[in-house]
Amino acid sequence: MQSPIDSPALAIVGGGQLARMMEQAAVSLAVPVHLLAEGPDVSAAQVNPATTVGDYRDLATLRGVAEGCAVVTFDHEHVPPEHLRALDAEGHACRPGPHALLFAQDKREMRERLTALGVPCPRWAPVSDAAGLDRFAADGDGYPVVVKTTRGGYDGKGVWVVEDAGAAAEVFAAGVPLIAEELVDFRRELSALAARSPSGQVATYPVVESKQENGICREVIAPAPGLDPERAAEAEMLAMRVAAELDVVGILAVELFETADGRILVNELAMRPHNTGHWTMDGAETSQFENHLRAVLDLPLGSPRARARWTVMVNILGGEVGHLYDAYPHVMARDPGLKVHLYGKAVKPGRKVGHVNVYGDDLDDLLARARHAAAWFEGRLDDDVDPDDEDRDDVDPDEWDRGSTGE
Ligand code: ADP
């Protein structure tokens, strides 16, 4: 691919919103992007003329996209490792590389490696049948326990909280590799993001609190309210260490549980920009998308510092409103400080179609504003989310509703 500024070209595999937001950063840096998308109209394909539509599981297709690109990076972790090794051997640097991506692709590999590194994780074991699950439960506090597919899960799909082995019968019958984990009684979920370049430079973002509903990230507060500074530093160091030990290049997201007694346990790893980092688009000096690009191109990283005391991100999920643009006049008129990011996706119930960011000094106010905007886009405005309604649930940063899921 030609670049008037002589930039190397970047191939991005996967056409979702993460690729779209990487492209946004690539535009500013004038880095040409060749995209491999699942369809002609998917989120990232809409904004990139250099798009190939095809299957990321097909090596010939990947080769075609990588041609002329020095670096290949990803919007998801599902590209077969053998294809990545082939591309690497042919002179296209896959970043992150297959040896690192394995730990984001397979939860058993991830647990084994983190355990070997002495990284605190929930108690876990591979399981393949009801007797094994019963043994795992008996070794701990009994049921309920969590059962997870080792591969292919996302947004809580592939994660089950089971009350007894019978409840997992269907999962065992499917014959897919599984692990069991203790059901962690967490106080809240945190996330630590690091960007790492092949030269070994690392930048860590402030540790955030994320709230999941039905396995989907709903809200993020940066930084995590009330987090003990020592715990926060520990979590940042952990992300740095995992990134270095696993040789991750690009963004590494470490999803964490903070337990009731103040311990930090690793839930899982993602090796790409992550939903818990979307706040950085407006709330940090360098967004996770720009730092992902800088990292994979081995450029000096940008400052991850927060611009304001607080930033709140709320995801917009598909709801009642079919035409999201119709929500713009109200949302924009009501709150000129609010930043809207839509992904160009058609509305389907529960589907992530965008997010809003807002930053400032007053966390209660920011939460109310971001929730209001998301609710307006979703067409579900009611008393709970209308900040003008005095009966709304009060939002105290220390008492922030820590509803958890796990189903
Ligand atoms: P996914 O790959 O779908 O993101 P995760 O492993 O992150 O799956 O699990 C999804 C959600 O399920 C987590 O965000 C958390 O809320 C809950 N969860 C996962 N593992 C556990 C666990 N061991 N104990 C308690 N809750 C869990």
Q: What does this protein look like?
A:
By secondary structure, the chain is α+β, with helices and mostly antiparallel strands. It has 3 domains: 10-94, Rossmann fold (3-Layer(aba) Sandwich), CATH 3.40.50; 123-182, ATP-grasp fold, A domain (Dna Ligase, domain 1), CATH 3.30.1490; 186-399, ATP-grasp fold, B domain (D-amino Acid Aminotransferase, Chain A, domain 1, 2-Layer Sandwich), CATH 3.30.470. The protein is built from 12 helices and 18 strands. The protein has helices at 17-29, 59-66, 81-89, 98-105, 107-116, 130-139, 169-173, 229-245, 280-283, 288-296, 328-334, 363-378; strands spanning 9-13, 33-37, 51-53, 69-74, 93-94, 124-127, 145-149, 159-162, 178-182, 186-196, 202-204, 208-213, 216-222, 250-259, 264-270, 310-317, 339-342, 352-360. The strands form 3 sheets. Strands 10, 11, 12, 13, 14, 15, 16, 17 and 18 form a 9-stranded antiparallel sheet that branches. A 5-stranded parallel sheet has the order 3-2-1-4-5, with helices on both faces. α3 links the parallel β4 and β5. α1 (17-29) packs across α10 (288-296) and α3 runs antiparallel to α4. The radius of gyration is 21 Å and the shape is globular. The N and C termini lie far apart (45 Å). Mean pLDDT is 93; it is low at 383-407. The structure holds adenosine-5'-diphosphate (ADP). Adenosine-5'-diphosphate binds next to β7, β9 and β15. The site of adenosine-5'-diphosphate has 23 residues, from β7, β9 and β15.
